[in-house]
């Protein structure tokens, strides 16, 4: 059975692990700690797909009819 | 406030660090108790509370004059103190039956150890602490623990065989035929080790399982269960006191019997009785327990009943309570009021007040109010002295008050025109259910409101009542007039269009006025525009043969449109032709407004109606809320005069259709019946082709429904062709004022198929709906097809089927409202603390982000054009005249 990527599905928005620099600017912009972000479980299929580890922050780029692209951030937890 | 200073505790803002819930231990109960209660009597012959009785003065005082023996304060100041009852034998606390059962089953009957391997216990403990750190509820883990621990048949520690424990309502535990007494259960729980308790998700310091079996009962202070003195001077005790009396009585009898060495049987009976009384003391609605009743037969309201439900402590006294400065009465329409106004009866205006601080500059005015008193309308009902004392203004003390009145006092003056109040109609489902209005004091006994604000309140005038709340502070009035005034709520955030707008006669009025070329004389034109602030008529549209000038309806309507308004769109009456000719529409169904002048088209629901009105929408968005409100005020007034100018009435003769049309309808229905009988014979001969995914029986039903539905539509069309745009019902239906073409069809041509749950009517007798049909008859008339029209009248069978169909609608609405009400309640409770921050993120109270940008696109739907993100296009078009992509 060939392995497929969840990200290829059209209903799944793009997920990527954020690097520290970007994360810092985002956290500063919203004036929050990582823990105050919405959460995602490490066991979530998409988190496993991109090899996210607890403590990472995942950036989600959603397509939006009204905004074009909407950004969302999730803190990965156990 | 000067007087209270000495014994007032300075208010320091405090933050609640944590709340801990646990079980109360017998030791704690005794520690907080000021006295043991041993006698069931309350007062002695002189009416003085008996020592160590339920009304003991150490429990606090409620009678004025007496002093609390515990804290020395008087009634009102003393918060009350707990007492306790020593129960002769332990009883189970009903609230914990579920937990007791679970623990009993997962704990060894001999050694009381939790029947899990040590390693497993460690795993569970670890999981629990992890869940706690994450702020998750530990319920899942704990349920797992109990599920696993009840499995072993033999205790892994002492090897004792475990017997099945059956729970029987209300509170009996039966182990292999033997009933466990509360004492036995308590003994088992006492022996559970602290470590095991932790695995069960409890904290042994604050909640030991044996505390779920009561040995001592706390007695709430008298302030919790005050007795009331009836008019006859007789005392009437609170339900809780009654219940406690019962408990003490039984407790005493139990003691006496046991001391006297009564037989086991009697002891058991009394024990059960004690259990019953303690159970109903906590909860009088336990299933399987007959509720304890008052002498009158009314069930007692005990602890759980006080807290539970809509009128309970939480929903009834804490989340919501009754308020002052409010009024409620029936509403009725007054189209001459502005939408921002509300008519308030004199009677109400005289009772409701607004506090006004007296300063040197309003001293004379305030004096005048006080002089007028409460009887002459804009007067004053109370004055408040500088020290905070409220004094009622009466005929006797007026002179005295006038002399004393000085800056620093406050006068509670009566409502008068222009005061701002909140107006509300329940159910308050959206923010437009409470809006701020300006008062107009009017004679009569009802609140008056402009019918254009009916849609947001969902009000009509068939007896609806509404509430008014008078704002008491300057800040609240400012806030209300800026945020909550009706004009600020014309546009709904629900769909980005006007929710306030013309209804019924407003629409037919303007429709009649603006359609066709009508000749309006100068007199009539002025009469029509009388209520709007207009000083000049435009150039007349032409002159009659005798030289008299005339105007047309479109010109009249244009007078109330703001200059600089440009819109065009198809009207409600649009026939949706394949190719729209736009401005050249031959039905005058394409509205063109240029520079505030109606050039083309008929004004109807699509222009000014609530929810739809595009002209209104445009006026509000481009000229502001005040202009929008003025437009609504103007067009409602114009419309009412417009509808009176032409006249619009509807009677039974408006449903008349010519004889040949009736014949045609009858023939069409006969055709349909024949078609149906053909279908039936094809079905019976099994020649019918089933639809994909349907059985044959389903297919025939669907085909019959289809055939009859089409027949009804056809008859409607036949009738419709006979009724032109002169017919009032057609005018109302086409312009969107009221009713639909279907309503008209049913009145004039054929009512059609009655349905229950979307199917033809089938219920009734076996195989038939009514006894005079053959069994298995599938014909149209046997299953609720009504051939008659409402005008011609239904025959008894049709009438009966119609009643069945009508009833379903009623039941549906009743069910739907209650269901959607609960859904809404849950949604509101879940979302009420979310807030859009200044950076446009949505956060909850802890600052945790829910959305990074409101709605993920940051669009305020109120300002969008019907929820489409195209407002920017409109603005660019207006400024540059060019389209943007």
UniProtKB/TrEMBL annotation, chain A:
Q: Which reaction does it catalyse?
A: RNA(n) + a ribonucleoside 5'-triphosphate = RNA(n+1) + diphosphate
Which superkingdom heads the taxonomic lineage of this protein's source? Archaea
| UniProt EC number | 2.7.7.6
Q: Where does this one sit in the cell?
A: Cytoplasm
Q: What do we know about how this protein assembles, alone or with others?
A: Part of the RNA polymerase complex.
GO cellular component, as recorded: cytoplasm; DNA-directed RNA polymerase complex
Name the family the entry cites: Belongs to the archaeal Rpo5/eukaryotic RPB5 RNA polymerase subunit family.
Enzyme class, UniProt record, top EC level: transferase
Q: Give an example GO molecular function.
A: DNA binding
Which ranges form a coiled coil?
none
Q: Where is the signal peptide, in residue numbers?
A: none
Q: What does this protein do?
A: DNA-dependent RNA polymerase (RNAP) catalyzes the transcription of DNA into RNA using the four ribonucleoside triphosphates as substrates.
Alphabetized UniProt keyword annotations: Cytoplasm, DNA-directed RNA polymerase, Nucleotidyltransferase, Transcription, Transferase
| GO BP annotations, alphabetical order | transcription by RNA polymerase II; transcription elongation by RNA polymerase I; tRNA transcription by RNA polymerase III
**Keyword Cytoplasm set for record:** yes
Q: Which SUPFAM superfamilies match?
A: RPB5-like RNA polymerase subunit
InterPro entries cross-referenced by the UniProt entry: Arch_Rpo5/euc_Rpb5, RNA_pol_subH/Rpb5_C, RPB5-like_sf
Q: What is this protein called?
A: DNA-directed RNA polymerase subunit Rpo5
UniProtKB/TrEMBL annotation, chain B:
Q: Where does this protein chiefly localize? A: cytoplasm
InterPro entries with a match to the protein in the record: 4Fe4S_Fe-S-bd (IPR017896), DNA-dir_RpoC_beta_prime (IPR045867), RNA_pol_asu (IPR000722), RNA_pol_N (IPR006592), RNA_pol_Rpb1_1 (IPR007080), RNA_pol_Rpb1_3 (IPR007066), RNA_pol_Rpb1_3_sf (IPR042102), RNA_pol_Rpb1_4 (IPR007083)
GO aspect biological process, one term:
DNA-templated transcription
Molecular functions per Gene Ontology: DNA binding; DNA-directed RNA polymerase activity; magnesium ion binding; zinc ion binding
Give the reactions, separated by semicolons, that this protein catalyses: RNA(n) + a ribonucleoside 5'-triphosphate = RNA(n+1) + diphosphate
Q: Which PROSITE patterns match?
A: 4FE4S_FER_2
Free-text remark on how the cofactor is bound: Binds at least 2 Zn(2+) per subunit.
Q: Which family does it belong to?
A: Belongs to the RNA polymerase beta' chain family.
Please name the PANTHER family in this protein's record: DNA-DIRECTED RNA POLYMERASE (PTHR19376), DNA-DIRECTED RNA POLYMERASE III SUBUNIT RPC1 (PTHR19376:SF32)
NCBIfam families per UniProt: PRK08566.1, RNA_pol_rpoA1
Protein's recorded name? DNA-directed RNA polymerase subunit Rpo1N
Species whose genome carries this gene: Methanococcoides vulcani
- Gene name on record? rpo1N
């Amino acid at each position: 059975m060939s392995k497929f990527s969840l990200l290829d599905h059209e209903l799944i928005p793009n997920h990527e692990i954020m690097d520290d620099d970007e994360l810092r600017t985002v956290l500063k912009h919203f004036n929050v700690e990582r823990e105050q972000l919405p959460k995602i479980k490490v066991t979530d299929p998409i988190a496993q797909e991109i090899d996210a580890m607890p403590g990472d922050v995942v950036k989600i780029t959603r397509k939006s009819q009204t905004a074009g692209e909407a950004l969302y951030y999730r803190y990965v937890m156990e | 406030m000067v007087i209270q200073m000495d014994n007032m505790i300075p208010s320091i803002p405090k933050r609640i660090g944590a709340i801990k819930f646990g079980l109360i231990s017998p030791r704690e109960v005794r520690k907080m108790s000021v006295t043991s209660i041993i006698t069931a009597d309350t007062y002695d012959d002189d009416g003085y509370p008996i020592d160590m009785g339920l009304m003991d003065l150490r429990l606090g005082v409620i009678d004025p004059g007496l002093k609390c023996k515990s804290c020395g304060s008087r009634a009102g100041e003393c918060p009350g103190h707990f007492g306790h009852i020593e129960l002769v034998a332990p009883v189970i606390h009903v609230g914990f039956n579920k937990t007791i059962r679970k623990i009993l089953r997962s704990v060894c009957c001999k050694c009381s150890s939790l029947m899990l391997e040590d390693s497993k216990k460690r795993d569970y403990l670890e999981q629990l602490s992890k869940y706690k750190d994450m702020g998750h509820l530990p319920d899942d883990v704990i349920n797992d623990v109990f599920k696993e621990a009840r499995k072993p048949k033999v205790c892994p520690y002492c090897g004792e065989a475990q017997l099945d424990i059956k729970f029987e309502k209300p509170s009996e535990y039966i182990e292999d035929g033997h009933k466990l007494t509360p004492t036995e259960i308590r003994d088992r729980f006492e022996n559970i080790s602290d470590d095991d308790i932790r695995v069960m998700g409890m904290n042994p310091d604050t909640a030991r399982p044996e505390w779920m079996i009561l040995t001592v009962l706390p007695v709430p202070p008298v302030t919790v269960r005050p007795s009331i003195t009836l008019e006859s001077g007789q005392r009437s005790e609170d339900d809780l006191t009654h219940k406690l009396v019962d408990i003490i009585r039984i407790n005493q009898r139990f003691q006496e019997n046991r001391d006297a060495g009564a037989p086991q049987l009697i002891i058991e009976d009394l024990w059960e009785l004690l259990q019953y009384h303690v159970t109903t003391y906590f909860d009088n609605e336990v299933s399987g327990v007959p509720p304890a009743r008052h002498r009158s037969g009314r069930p007692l309201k005990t602890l759980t009943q006080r807290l539970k439900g809509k009128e309970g402590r939480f929903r009834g006294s804490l989340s919501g309570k009754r308020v002052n400065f409010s009024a409620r009465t029936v509403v009725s329409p007054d189209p001459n009021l502005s939408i921002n106004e509300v008519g308030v009866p004199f009677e109400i205006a005289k009772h409701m007040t607004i506090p006004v601080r007296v300063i040197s500059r309003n001293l004379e005015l305030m004096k005048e109010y006080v002089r007028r008193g409460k009887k002459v309308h804009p007067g004053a009902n109370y004055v408040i002295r500088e020290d905070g004392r409220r004094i009622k203004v009466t005929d006797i003390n007026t002179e005295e008050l006038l002399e004393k009145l000085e800056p620093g006092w406050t006068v509670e003056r009566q409502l008068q025109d222009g005061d701002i109040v909140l107006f509300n109609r329940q159910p308050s489902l959206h923010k437009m259910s409470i809006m701020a209005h300006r008062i107009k004091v009017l004679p009569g006994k009802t609140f008056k409101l402009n019918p254009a604000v009916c849609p947001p309140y969902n009000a009509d005038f068939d007896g609806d009542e509404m509430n008014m709340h008078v704002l008491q502070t300057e800040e609240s009035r400012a806030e209300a007039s800026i945020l909550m005034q009706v004009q600020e709520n014309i546009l709904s955030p629900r769909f980005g269009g006007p929710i306030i707008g013309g209804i019924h006669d407003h629409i037919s009025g303007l429709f009649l006025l603006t359609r066709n070329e009508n000749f309006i004389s100068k007199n009539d034109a002025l009469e029509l525009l009388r209520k709007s602030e207009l000083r000049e008529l435009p150039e007349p549209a032409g002159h009659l043969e005798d030289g008299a000038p005339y105007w047309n309806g479109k010109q009249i309507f244009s007078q109330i449109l703001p200059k600089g308004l440009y819109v065009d769109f198809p009207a409600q009456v649009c026939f949706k032709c394949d190719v729209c000719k736009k401005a050249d529409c031959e039905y005058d169904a394409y509205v063109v407004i240029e520079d505030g002048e109606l050039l083309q088209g008929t004004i109807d629901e699509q222009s000014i109606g609530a929810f739809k009105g595009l002209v209104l929408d445009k006026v509000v968005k481009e000229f502001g809320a005040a202009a929008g409100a003025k437009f609504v005020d103007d067009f409602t007034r114009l419309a009412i005069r417009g509808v009176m100018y032409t006249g619009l009435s509807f009677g039974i003769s408006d449903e008349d259709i010519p004889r040949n049309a009736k014949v045609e309808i009858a023939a069409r229905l006969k055709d349909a019946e024949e078609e149906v009988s053909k279908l039936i014979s094809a079905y019976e001969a099994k020649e019918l082709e089933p639809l994909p995914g349907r059985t044959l029986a389903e297919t025939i039903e669907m085909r019959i429904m289809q055939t009859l539905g089409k027949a009804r539509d056809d008859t409607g069309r036949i009738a419709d062709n006979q009724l032109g745009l002169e017919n009032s019902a057609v005018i109302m239906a086409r312009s969107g004022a009221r009713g639909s073409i279907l309503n008209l069809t049913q009145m004039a041509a054929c009512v059609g198929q009655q349905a229950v749950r979307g199917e033809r009517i089938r219920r009734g007798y076996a195989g038939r709906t009514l006894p005079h049909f053959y069994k298995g008859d599938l014909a149209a008339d046997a299953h609720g097809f009504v051939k008659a029209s409402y005008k011609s009248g239904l025959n008894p069978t049709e009438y009966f089927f119609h009643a069945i169909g009508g009833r379903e609608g009623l039941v549906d609405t009743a069910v739907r409202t209650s269901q959607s009400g609960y859904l809404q309640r849950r949604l509101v409770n879940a979302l009420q603390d979310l807030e859009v921050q200044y950076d446009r993120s949505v956060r909850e109270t802890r600052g945790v982000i829910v959305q990074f940008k409101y709605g993920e696109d940051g669009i305020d739907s109120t300002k969008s054009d019907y929820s489409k993100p195209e407002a920017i296009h409109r603005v660019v078009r207006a400024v540059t005249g060019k389209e943007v992509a």
